[in-house]
């Protein structure tokens, strides 16, 4: 009987953890998002305004950040689950050498956009002091959700919360 009770408690804790996954996305109460103009690893410039009409996951990260590394596969999975939809990931690395980022990416297979934040100016503007720090902007460019810390981005509740922001498809 004791092992059945223990199993039930573990199952309930698992359900509670899953239910809290989407709750970890905090509704954004700040004002307009700070502008940024950052280069990717190929030297192309990106601005948040370039992505109007799309839902954008903005994720501040570093290679030395364990939780950042841990959540990257789930970010990639989220991107894959929303493939073909107006959704993009902008992963903003905090002031690390390109060689270190490239080495890391050679081991971590992701295909979302990596942006460089030399001097941490974007991180400061977005108040991303603890990593990972993430923001979800809607198609209108307004930030809808924020999160400090790691989350399972491909959890069904998180995916559905982000999918709700996607613009309705035109027929």
Question: Care to describe what's here?
Answer:
The protein has 171 residues and is α+β, with helices and mostly antiparallel strands. Helix content is 36%, strand content 23%. The chain has helices spanning 2-23, 66-81, 98-107, 121-125, 156-163, and strands spanning 26-27, 37-40, 45-47, 55-61, 87-94, 113-117, 133-137, 143-148. Strands 1-8-7-4-5-6-2-3 form an 8-stranded mixed β-sheet. A hairpin with a 5-residue loop joins strand 7 and strand 8 (143-148). Helix 1 packs parallel to helix 5. The protein is globular and about 40 Å long. The protein starts with a helix and ends in an 8-residue tail after the last helix. Residues 1-20 have low confidence and may be disordered.
Strand content: 15-25%
- Mass-distribution shape: globular
Q: How many helix segments?
A: 5
Q: Rg from C-alpha positions?
A: 17 Å
Class by alpha and beta content = alpha+beta
Q: In whole angstroms, how far apart are the ends?
A: 57 Å
Low-confidence parts, pLDDT < 50 over ≥5 residues? 1-20
Number of strands: 8
Strand order of the largest sheet: 1-8-7-4-5-6-2-3
Fraction in helix? 25-40%
Order of helices and strands: HEEEEHEHEHEEH
Q: What profile does the largest beta sheet have?
A: 8 strands, mixed
Overall mean pLDDT stands at 87
């Amino acid at each position: 009987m004791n092992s059945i009770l223990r199993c039930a408690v573990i199952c309930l804790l698992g359900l509670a953890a899953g239910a809290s996954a989407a709750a970890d996305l905090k509704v954004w109460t700040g004002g307009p998002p700070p502008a940024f103009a950052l280069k990717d690893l190929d030297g192309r410039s990106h601005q948040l305004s370039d992505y109007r009409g799309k839902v954008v996951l903005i994720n501040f990260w570093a290679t030395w950040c364990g939780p950042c590394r841990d959540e990257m596969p789930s970010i990639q999975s989220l991107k894959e689950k929303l493939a073909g939809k107006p959704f993009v990931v902008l992963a903003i690395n905090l002031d690390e050498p390109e060689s270190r980022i490239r080495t890391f990416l050679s081991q971590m297979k992701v295909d979302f956009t990596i942006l460089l934040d030399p001097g941490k100016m974007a991180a400061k503007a977005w108040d991303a002091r603890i990593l990972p720090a993430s923001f979800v902007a809607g198609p209108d460019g307004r930030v809808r959700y924020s999160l400090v810390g790691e989350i399972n981005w491909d959890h069904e509740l998180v995916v559905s919360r982000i999918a709700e922001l996607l613009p309705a498809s035109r027929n």
